[in-house]
């Protein structure tokens, strides 16, 4: 019977063998796993980013989860509703009928001209005013395909359904004043007179000299000019840009005092003291369909260039007035002066020294604006 062979192993050799055994039992990652993990992470970031830039659906007035309908409204041809408010004398006896277009982050309740024109003057001349909520504001339905032209169509249809006649006067304020250019372009035959109160200029209208529009744009604080650039170059980012908390958003949305001139701050203090704040009503259907879409349309690519417009009134039978405060921070005067000079043959320009964006609220100013508009007729 054969005997087994005896073998001695040193302590050092045993320790080395144990280490090799432990090392060989560790987790071995499959080749190519890191690119796969990176791809999953990137896909997750893209999905998160896509969700972050998607605006929430609007809360339509009158819907199950939307605000109540409290305003008078018309139903437009495309099925949307447009809310409006009437002021002054009854339209049935009115001699003068005026449509007012509100500006940014306000609504039909903020008709500064109707609210501040003296009642005696309104009665004496028989003036009827109607202000309305632009799409997505207040109680007017949103319009996802909103354009300058579609908003002009809303105004014409409002006038027709209310029976304002073949012609009416138009007053537009701020971003509503900007829409006044659209009315001059598309429905000049319906206009008896036009007044643009510090109408917002689109810095990318081709007719502006590039150095002038750049100078005007950079008169804004950085948070504002970047917000406007986003609205023009990346409108799909406008909602995210103005709702994130990483850096300041557009001052007109955050209500920052840096957008107000000295005079504007005084006027704003008086308005606040009077309790004149309709912001909750203005934004009740959601900020995207009101404020953010307004920015995208107002500062996007337009269908025409107001700077290059020809006089729509060949016989100068209709007066067009443009008002501007020379200390307006929201709408720099330098572009207004350029437009006024280009169209000096058919636009009457009124620049107010020391005034800002809120000059229509000054005592007696509404009367002056209306009297000037009617001067050629009365």
Automatic annotation (TrEMBL):
Region feature (Disordered): 1-25
Cross-referenced SUPFAM superfamilies: alpha/beta-Hydrolases
The record ties this protein, via InterPro entries, to: AB_hydrolase_1, AB_hydrolase_fold
- Mind telling me which Pfam families this protein's record contains? Abhydrolase_6 (PF12697)
* Ranges that cross the membrane: 27-50
Q: Point out the coiled-coil segments of this chain.
A: none
This protein's UniProt keywords: Membrane, Transmembrane, Transmembrane helix
Check the record and name the Gene3D superfamilies matching this protein.
Answer: alpha/beta hydrolase (3.40.50.1820)
Give all residue intervals belonging to the AB hydrolase-1 domain: 98-363
- Entry protein name: AB hydrolase-1 domain-containing protein
| Natural source organism | Linum trigynum
């Amino acid at each position: 019977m054969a005997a087994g062979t005896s073998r001695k192993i040193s302590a050092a050799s045993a320790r080395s063998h144990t280490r090799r055994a432990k090392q060989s039992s560790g987790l071995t990652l499959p080749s190519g796993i890191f690119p796969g993990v990176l791809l999953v992470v990137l896909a997750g970031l893209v999905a998160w980013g896509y969700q972050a830039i998607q605006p929430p659906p609007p809360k339509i007035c009158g819907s199950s989860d939307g605000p109540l309908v409290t305003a008078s409204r018309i139903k437009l041809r495309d099925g949307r509703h447009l809310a409006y408010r009437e002021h002054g004398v009854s339209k049935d006896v009115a001699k003068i009928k005026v449509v007012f277009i509100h500006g940014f982050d306000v609504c039909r309740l903020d008709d500064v001209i109707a609210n501040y024109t003296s009642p005696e003057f309104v009665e004496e001349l028989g003036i009827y005013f109607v202000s309305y909520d632009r799409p997505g504001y207040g109680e007017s339905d949103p319009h996802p395909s909103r354009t300058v032209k579609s908003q002009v169509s809303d105004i014409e249809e409002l006038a027709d359904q209310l029976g304002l006649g073949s012609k009416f006067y138009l007053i537009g304020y701020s971003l509503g004043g900007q829409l006044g250019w659209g009315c001059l372009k598309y429905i000049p035959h319906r206009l008896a007179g036009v007044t643009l109160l510090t109408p917002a200029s689109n810095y990318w209208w081709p007719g502006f000299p590039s150095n002038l529009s750049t100078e005007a744009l950079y008169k804004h604080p950085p948070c504002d000019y970047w917000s406007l650039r986003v609205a023009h170059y990346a409108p799909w980012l406008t909602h995210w840009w103005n709702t994130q908390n990483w850096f300041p958003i557009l001052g007109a949305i955050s209500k920052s005092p840096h957008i107000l001139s000295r005079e504007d701050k005084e006027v704003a203090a008086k308005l606040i003291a009077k309790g004149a704040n309709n912001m909750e009503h203005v934004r009740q259907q959601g900020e995207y369909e009101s404020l953010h879409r307004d920015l995208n349309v107002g500062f996007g690519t337009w269908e025409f260039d107001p700077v290059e417009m020809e006089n729509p009134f060949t016989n100068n039978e209709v007066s067009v007035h443009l008002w501007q405060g020379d200390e307006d921070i929201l709408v720099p005067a330098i572009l207004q002066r350029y437009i006024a000079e280009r169209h000096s043959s058919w636009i009457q320009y009124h620049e107010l020294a020391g005034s800002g964006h809120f000059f229509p609220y000054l005592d007696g100013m509404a009367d002056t604006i209306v009297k000037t508009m009617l001067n050629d007729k009365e």
